[in-house]
Amino acid sequence: MAEQVMDVSSQTETPRLAPRRWMLFVGLALIFGLGLAVRLYDLGDAPLDFHPTRQLHSMLMARGMAYQSLPDVPDWQREMSYQQWKKEGLIEPPVMEWLTAQAYLAAGQVDLRLPRLFSIFFWMLGGAGIFLLAKTLTGPDGGLVGAAYFLVLPYAVLASRAFQPDPLLTAAIIWALWAALRWQMRPSWGRAALAGILCGLAIFIKSTAVFFVGGGLVGLVLAGWGLRRALRDGQVWLAAVLTVLPYALFHIYGVYISGELQSQFSLRFFPQMWLDPVFYLRWNGQIASTVGFEWFLLALLGTFTIKDSRARAMLLGAWVGYFLYGLTLPHHISTHDYYQLPLIPLAALGLAAGAAALFRALRGPRVLVSLAVVGVLLYGLTIKAWDARVSLKRQDYRQEAVFWEKLGERLGRDRAVVGLTQDYGFRLSYWGWVDTTNWMTSGDFSYRELAGQEFDMRALFDEVTAGKDLFVVTLLGELDHQPELKKILDENYRLIESSGDVLIYDLKQAP
To answer: Which pLDDT belongs to residue 267?
Structure first.
């Protein structure tokens, strides 16, 4: 195969932000230093600041893994933590949970700062990938702009501290696209293998990466080789096999051997939502609250300013993958804001390209223009980093752990509990060491009714509470949203505790 070289950065004029090499290093140090500093702020707060249900899922799994080997753990906690771990089942390969468990073992204790540090590290690693990709596509100015957006976007600051696989997923997608573009720039068997390995790793971490990695690869291969040539190229086949193989093996294990993945494919696909205008409005709202709607539009348009057709096709393919991703998972894309996280690198790269094109079009004395560009970027960095810090400072969840510990002590470990509590009972399970059978919220009922399920409330109540001792309510407003449940509890069972935060019904005693 003939060597192909793509030197996109040579298309740019003298950089406006960093006309000298030392300025580039200073700019990178400032951007990455600020991005890291704001993420380390209030590191010890309980990880309830971002989608606590998802984080508690990982917290329970990691603790269960670690407690099987940690010394000086009471036998009852070792056994209960194992049961809690296994009860969570598989959603995706527990990479973050396993890494965290190993860190717990190395530290000799469970320390919830450790998974935060892992997530922060992976996001910062993704920032390095954004800089390299954007620099290749647009030059150093674009690299700095892309990295700045990726690292100080307030939503990204919050999300990148969360104990869940998505920060690692986002970084893996970025580096997969970097490796794929590098392979296209100068094809070789080694680069094809690296691209396939990194693409396969991204999909293995979380299968939704297939939309972004697959879309990018399709665009790149079609623009670089063409369909006929690609089908005859051994390197393309090598990359394709390595991309598909890791998750294919995991899927076979999870579905056909352990069976733990079978339930993950239900309550996902709702094509009837495509015809509902509210779905698109909610999706738009998720975009606006995460990447910023104006930035989203500018980034999409900025993608078309990339001069190299192959690089442009790769990024456009990833954009197409994003829209297919949203249509495939319409409920989640319109209700779970962290499903927008893989959009952030696409927005960063699109904005990098658009900014580089804008900088090339600026006219005036070079020094004055450079000062104006640097001033605008510094102002934006400072304001966004401060906004992120304010969001972190305004939240303090340290007392949450204390509340659930005390509630767990009052309930006791030997009581069988049904709970209408925060995060499906995970807070009570984690800090209170009380496993609960979850009673669904009104939102959960609506979600399942969307899938065609129907419920007889009395029959469901009898089924869920069979053999149980207590019904605990900490979502007091949610109980008011389920008047039939409230009527069943008030008319048939004794209320043994009523405080401002908790209602406890004795399922063994009449009122």
So the answer is: 60
Q: Is the dihedral of CA 331, 337, 342, 343 positive or negative?
A: positive
Task: Using alpha carbons, list the distances in angstroms from residue 263 to 42, 91, 221, 254, 273.
Answer: 37, 9, 34, 10, 21
pLDDT of residue 90: 84
Query: Is residue 5, in this structure, part of any structural domain at all?
Result: no
| b/e sequence 364-397, b meaning 16+ C-beta within 10 Å | eeeeeebeebbeebeeebeebbeebbeebeeeee
Distance separating alpha carbons of residues 23 and 454, to the nearest angstrom:
63
Answer yes or no: do 247 and 389 share one domain: yes
Measure the CA–CA gap between 6 and 186, rounded to whole angstroms.
8
Same domain, 415 and 283: no
**For tokens 């449940």, what's the residue?**
485
Identify the H or E element spanning 329: none
Average pLDDT over residues 481-490: 94
What the block records as the tokens of 416 is: 């069988």
Helices (H) and strands (E) in the chain, counts: 24, 5
For the cut 50, the answer to whether the pLDDT of residue 437 exceeds it is: yes
Distances (CA, A) of 4 to 218, 233, 313, 391: 18, 15, 16, 47
Amino acid at the residue 444: D
Please indicate, yes or no, if residue 9 is contained in any of the structural domains.
Answer: no
Does residue 327 sit in the same domain as residue 307? yes
Domain that holds residue 57: 52-111
Number of Cβ atoms within 10 Å of the Cβ of 182: 18
CA distances to 75, 91, 120, 240 from 203, in Å = 38, 13, 20, 12
Distance of CA 488 to CAs 55, 287, 454, 473, 484, Å? 33, 41, 19, 14, 6
- The half-sphere exposure of 247 on its side-chain side, counting CA atoms within 13 A, is 20
Question: Same domain, yes or no, for 73 and 144?
Answer: no
| pLDDT for 12 | 42
pLDDT at position 482, please?
Answer: 94
Which has the closest alpha carbon to 300: 314, 313, 316, 289? 316
Beta-bridge partner residues of 495: 505
Write phi, then psi, for 163 (nearest 5 degrees).
-85, 85
Q: Please indicate, yes or no, if residue 1 is contained in any of the structural domains.
A: no
Mark which of 364, 393, 422 sits at the end of a domain: 393
Euclidean distance between CA atoms 378 and 26, whole angstroms: 12
Domain count, the chain: 3
Q: What is the pLDDT of residues 186-238, one digit of tens each?
A: 999 999 999 999 999 999 999 999 999 999 999 999 999 999 999 999 999 99
> Residue range 353-382: average pLDDT?
85
